[in-house]
Structure formats: structure tokens, C-alpha cells
Design goal:
about 240 residues; mainly beta; Jelly Rolls; 7-stranded antiparallel β-sheet; about 0% helix; globular; Quercetinase_C; RmlC_Cupin_sf
Length: about 240
Amino acid sequence: MARSVLHLAATRGHANHGWLDSFHTFSFANYHDPARMHFGALRVLNDDTVAEGRGFGRHPHQNMEIISIPLAGDLEHQDSLGNKTVIRQNDVQVMSAGTGVAHSEKNHSLYDAVKFLQIWVIPNAENVAPRYGQQTFSPEARHNRLLQVASPSPDDAGVWLHQNAWFHLGTLDQGFATEYRLKQPGNGVYAFVLAGDVTINGQALHRRDGFGLWEVDALAITADSNAELLLMEVPMLG
């Protein structure tokens, strides 16, 4: 029988540091809720706004898959692997921290805020060699379609993760209906509404609501208005 968890936008943790305004779907930093530690391998889902010219100073990570998805503006990235790049809207970035990597992320603009999703996925292998990846996806490619932007394989579409996880983005017109079929038995899917209104398996969802489902084979998705949607299929980790 299908199981689910609903996280309404207004129930998220919130921290405003002035330069950083962040909403936490799961426990993070000073926000701690024992009932909201993770959804399977999905450990962190932060909805961040960074003020112009500001950012996260250089800091280390180990044994985590870290995905950044800019929603507006440009994010400047530097790391101890020698990468220095700008992540823009329609890009998806992944950093496999593995045995250890240090990085910094800051707003590339001195005039406009940058909005992005910071997502952490627990890997299925520890102490791998650190790795960086970034891809650009055309907005047209996800119009009325669930476009795969992350997968477990470098030979599959999207950036690749050290986890049996698949991410999809869709920009859906009002009235559009589709189905998402899970790719691996035992996985769950966490849906996060970026904009607009959708109904998934009978549950009405609105902007920044999160809805996790597991012990299901498929999701029935209908856009109740023009909408943007992120689906994250992950192992449930027992």
C-alpha cells in the first residue's frame, strides 16, 4: 500500500542571516526536527536566496552528493579540485565530496540576488574520489515533459550521482497530465513544487510544497495551473 509524507511550504525551517535567507525542508544547521531528518537518501533540501555579492566561504565536505540548481541569477563556484565556474539558471551542478573537498559558493552578481536549491544526497559508496560535474539544460526540453537531469550513470542523461537516484524537472502547462514510473523497486519519490499548483496521486500541492511517496510504482501528475516541478527518486535506505 502506498505511503506518503506531506511537507507544506509554511512548515519548513527558516533562517534569515541577512545575506542568506534559507528555508529548510529537512533538519539543517540550527533547525532540528526529529521527524524531518531526511526522505530516504535525500538528506538536505534548502531553498536559498543569497544577497548580491555575498556567499558561502570556503568550507569542507566529505561523503555526500551535493547538487545545486539555480532558480534565478548566477552562482559562482570554486573548489579544491581546481574548478572555478559560474552556475546559471537552467544549469545543474553536482559535487561528489567523497574523501574530501573544500568549496565556496557566492552570488556572481553585485546587483541582484541569486536563488537556488541546495540538495544533499547520501551516497551509496563512501570515500570515492571527489568529482565535479555541471550541465546546462534547455528550458524547451522540459516543457510539458519530465526531463531527466541527474542519474546514477555517466552514460545516462544528466549529471551523475554516487546513488541509485534520478532527478527530473518539468515546466508544465495548466491542464497537462503525465505519469512518472519509478525506475528502481523500493525507491521513493520526493516531489517539490517550484512554482504553480499540481496534483500528484490525488494530493493537491502548491508553490514550495513537498510530497514524498514510497511503496508506489508510479505517480499521476496533473498541472492545476502553469507549474514547475522537481522530482527526486531516491532509495529509501530501510
